């Protein structure tokens, strides 16, 4: 009688692929990026911007554009977690209000697909990527090109928002989802603790769709 087959061990949790979506909120241009993490290896799937300058001054139309595009990206890449930059505190109250709405719509799109989110302060993102919380956008982009071996970016003035979003995603990877410094942020563990009924829905076993080659 043949010996019973022994179950194969499950792969180590740290080697399971995870897709992180990073977002740099904006009311004119919103940056987004998606990375796949497997252990310490990071592969950039895409990074780009949602350009809303041509939509005029109707803020509601821009919010709908953000929501629709976020859902398109989520359905295409199936991210496991969303990392989003917190709005900075400025002197223009109306600008802060609009920026907060844009951030909220991006978060709502993720939650509508049962994707947990974590919020990071801008200085935290810069410090994680460059070692200094006072780095400029150009310095962040330069460090990302070195760290992730990205090709030169011709449209630097436009794509600095995209590289900012990439920095948010990389910051989340460095933090391993443990962010307790920003009020309102939700770590993966806290999300599951607060919403145990979503455990099965949020950890589906469906295979990730391979991104289209650009």
UniProtKB/TrEMBL annotation:
The RuvA-RuvB-RuvC complex processes Holliday junction (HJ) DNA during genetic recombination and DNA repair. Endonuclease that resolves HJ intermediates. Cleaves cruciform DNA by making single-stranded nicks across the HJ at symmetrical positions within the homologous arms, yielding a 5'-phosphate and a 3'-hydroxyl group; requires a central core of homology in the junction. The consensus cleavage sequence is 5'-(A/T)TT(C/G)-3'. Cleavage occurs on the 3'-side of the TT dinucleotide at the point of strand exchange. Mg(2+) 1 binds at residues 24, 161. It is an enzyme of class 3 (hydrolase). Belongs to the RuvC family. CDD domains: RuvC. Its cofactor is Mg(2+). Mg(2+) 2 binds at residue 85. Pfam families: RuvC. InterPro entries: RNaseH-like_sf (IPR012337), RNaseH_sf (IPR036397), X-over_junc_endoDNase_RuvC (IPR002176). This is Crossover junction endodeoxyribonuclease RuvC. Binds 2 Mg(2+) ion per subunit. Residues 193-214 are annotated as: Disordered. The keyword Magnesium applies. The active site is at residues 24, 85, 161. Homodimer which binds Holliday junction (HJ) DNA. The HJ becomes 2-fold symmetrical on binding to RuvC with unstacked arms; it has a different conformation from HJ DNA in complex with RuvA. In the full resolvosome a probable DNA-RuvA(4)-RuvB(12)-RuvC(2) complex forms which resolves the HJ. GO terms for molecular function: hydrolase activity.
């Amino acid at each position: 009688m043949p010996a019973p087959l022994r179950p194969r061990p499950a792969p180590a949790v740290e080697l399971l692929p995870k897709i992180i979506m990073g977002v740099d909120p904006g009311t004119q241009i919103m940056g987004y990026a998606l990375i796949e993490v497997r252990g310490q290896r990071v592969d950039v799937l895409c990074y780009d911007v949602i350009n809303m300058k041509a939509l005029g001054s109707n803020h509601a139309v821009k919010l709908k554009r953000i929501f629709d595009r976020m859902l398109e990206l989520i359905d295409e890449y199936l991210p496991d977690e969303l990392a989003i930059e917190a709005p900075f505190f400025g002197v223009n109250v109306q600008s802060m209000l609009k920026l907060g709405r844009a951030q909220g719509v991006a978060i709502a799109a993720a939650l509508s697909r049962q994707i947990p989110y974590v919020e990071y302060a801008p200085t935290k993102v810069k410090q994680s990527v460059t070692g200094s919380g006072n780095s400029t956008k150009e310095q962040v982009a330069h460090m990302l090109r070195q760290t992730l071996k990205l090709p030169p970016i011709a449209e630097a003035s436009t794509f600095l928002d995209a590289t900012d979003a990439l920095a948010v995603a990389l910051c989340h990877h460095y933090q391993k989802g443990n962010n307790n410094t920003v009020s309102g942020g939700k770590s993966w563990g806290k999300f599951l603790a607060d919403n145990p009924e979503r455990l099965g829905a949020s950890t589906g076993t469906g295979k990730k769709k391979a991104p289209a080659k650009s």
